[in-house]
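User: Earlier you gave me the apo prediction for this protein. Now I'd like the version with flavin-adenine dinucleotide bound, so I can compare the two side by side. Same sequence as before, with the ligand SMILES added.
Assistant: Got it. Here's the input I'm using:
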Amino acid sequence: MKHRVVVIGAGFAGLQVVLGLKGAGCEITLIDRRNHHLFQPLLYQVATTLLATSDIAWPIRALLRERRDVTTLLGTVEGIDRDTRQVVLRGGGRIPYDTLVVSTGARHAYFGKDAWEADAPGLKTLEDATTIRRRLLLAFERAELAEDPAERQALLTFAVIGAGPTGVELVGIIAELAHRILPAEFRRADTRKARILLVEAGPRILPAFSADLSAYAAAALARRGVEVRTGAPMTECSAQGIVVGGELIPARTVIWAAGVQASRAQEWLGAKGDRAGRVMVAPDLTLPGDPAVFVLGDTAHVVSDGKPVPGVAPAAKQQGAHAARTIRARLAGRPGPGGFRYRDMGNLATIGRNAAVIEYGRFRLKGGLAWWVWGVAHIYFLIGARSRLFVALSWLWVFLSGQNSARLITQRELPKDR
Ligand SMILES: Cc1cc2nc3c(=O)[nH]c(=O)nc-3n(C[C@H](O)[C@H](O)[C@H](O)COP(=O)(O)OP(=O)(O)OC[C@H]3O[C@@H](n4cnc5c(N)ncnc54)[C@H](O)[C@@H]3O)c2cc1C
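And here is the structure of the complex with flavin-adenine dinucleotide:
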């Protein structure tokens, strides 16, 4: 019987494992609760009407159609039985493994205030993005209908909580939408009066970047009419608005970009985790004491060169490639590559049209050139010619016409399936 590798999660890490095992002679089962692989770095552009869902996600089954050694299963994992070496699916199905790869990513963390999720959705899945897009567009529509000026202003107040790259990218586009694109289309509501707030508990925005790039980003946002509030956390959130630094700010649209927590893998494995619930792994990315189990990407606490590896896409892909090399070596009876070493690919964030920041070691770039580099890098990392072409054309269209094209309100809000 062939060696059975089961991979849970077809995100950046899981997919890379499957790609790295091409021709290895094993039987691979890839399980994901969604039918698509998602390019999360551009999710905010779906949420803010720049891109369509199919531009940044691909059916997993179609990506692996040539791989006769891979079986793709649409299923939600609810447990792992390490004694019998089986993965337990919702509904009771069990999938046996010889080697298991757990790469189920991360989810939002509301720091114990889970009730905020209803009023401040986070951005992690395509459903999250279309929910946020729907709320954004409906807020403008309702402002156009509103008779009461205070209600209209509350509808035109948008708050994003958390000023990492996602928060900064969201407010940058919302400001462009409200202040530049929509004013010509609304008659009763003056969307130029929209308030866009970026709330950050820490002392500065983009804390992972150097202080000068963070200051540049804050100034660029201010020029776009974004109010940046640092140094005070949001302490309350309801359908009426938010409280920041003791002040109640009526805001009908709030987006959470403040924290993540690892998937439930730690519980499934009964393993030791860090404060964010990430599984502590051995240097070769396996579970200490159980070399048959690899834990990768956002769901793992990985240390490289004495430092924790950040939860970013390149880190997840590199870990996926490393795990695949280790599995291949084991199957061939060769010594494995040993401990994982992370190659830092730098930090990138856009602030809006013609403004971005890039940091790679000591190299720093900001402004229009950084924006173009950011764009080219993201197009390069998309999968397939169709997506690259469509995204490049969408961006070119927005750049030349000043119009965002994915502005349809098409669905009711759906109950969460987490
Ligand atoms: C909005 C946003 C913007 C980001 N921007 C950037 C950026 O600009 N640059 C960057 O480098 N990184 C960025 N990241 C981080 C990056 O996307 C993650 O670090 C990366 O996706 C981690 O890869 P992963 O394989 O660990 O998890 P993921 O890519 O999240 O994949 C996890 C997979 O597991 C599946 N899954 C989860 N639970 C289950 C279950 N119970 N059963 C079955 N399947 C399950 C999910 O459906 C998913 O397909 C961003 C993340 C977000 C959310």
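For your comparison, keep in mind: The radius of gyration is 22 Å.
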